[in-house]
Amino acid sequence: MAAASSPGASVAAGPGPEPPGPAPLQYSLLLAHLVGERRGPRQARALDPAALGGIPAPPKSDEQKLIEGVMESCGFKAALACVGGFVLGGAFGVFTAGIDTNVGFDPKDPYRTPTAKEVLKDMGQRGMSYAKNFAIVGAMFSCTECIVESYRGKSDWKNSVLSGCITGGAIGFRAGLKAGAIGCGGFAAFSAVIDYYLR
Fold first, then answer.
1. Longest pairwise C-alpha distance within the chain
2. pTM of the model
């Protein structure tokens, strides 16, 4: 006859079910939001990190959300493109002035050799002129592309083409309707080529 177990004795529990492992990482879902026509800030915000399985998604603070909102805004992108265009245009203007043999020469007295001060002054003026033009074009294109992308909700080559057409048309329209049409077509084609090689 088996002895009865005492009330204080512990009962050995059998092996329970194993905890489920981590969900598999869905690379196809991740790539669909990083490349292709679905790529963009709006699609990235709509992506549920829990659906990716193995990617942790820590909660973001209010400061991080504020900084991300500012950096994704059209105003910040336009300001960044304006600064970049100013620097690039200034460097390009100084470079073109440096290889120009007529820099610093006075049209009224072409036989007089210009001084170093006159050459540097002419190079600075040309660099500043190029910098202003590049800054305006960069800010206009970046702001227009951001607005078009926000309106369409897509990030593809059409945004660059539409932005280039609007920017080129606005710049060329000051010289007339024909110049505006040529500027629209030229900037659109140039934007399409650049977008094709960058993507």
1. 129
2. 0.63
Q: What is the distance between the alpha carbons of residues 61 and 58, in angstroms, rounded to a whole number?
A: 9
CA–CA distance from 128 to each of 90, 96, 98, 119, 196 (Å)?
6, 12, 14, 14, 31
Q: Sign of the CA dihedral 128, 192, 139, 198?
A: negative
pLDDT-derived band at 38, boundaries 50, 70, 90: low
In this structure, what are the phi and psi dihedrals at residue 170, rounded to the nearest 5 degrees? -65, -35
List, as own/partner pairs, every contact residues 168-172 make where C-beta atoms lie below 8 angstroms and the sequence separation is at least 24, other chains included.
170/140, 171/137, 171/140
pLDDT digit string, tens, across residues 92-131: 998 988 888 777 777 777 777 778 888 888 888 999 999 9
Residue with the two structure tokens 């593809």 = 156
Distance CA 184, CA 182 (A): 5
Cβ contact 164:187 at 8 Å? yes
* Dist CA 37 CA 34 (whole Å): 9
pLDDT digits (tens, 9 = 90+) for 79-94: 999 999 999 999 999 8
Closest CA to 36 of 156, 179, 181: 156
Q: How far is CA 99 from the centre of its chain?
A: 32
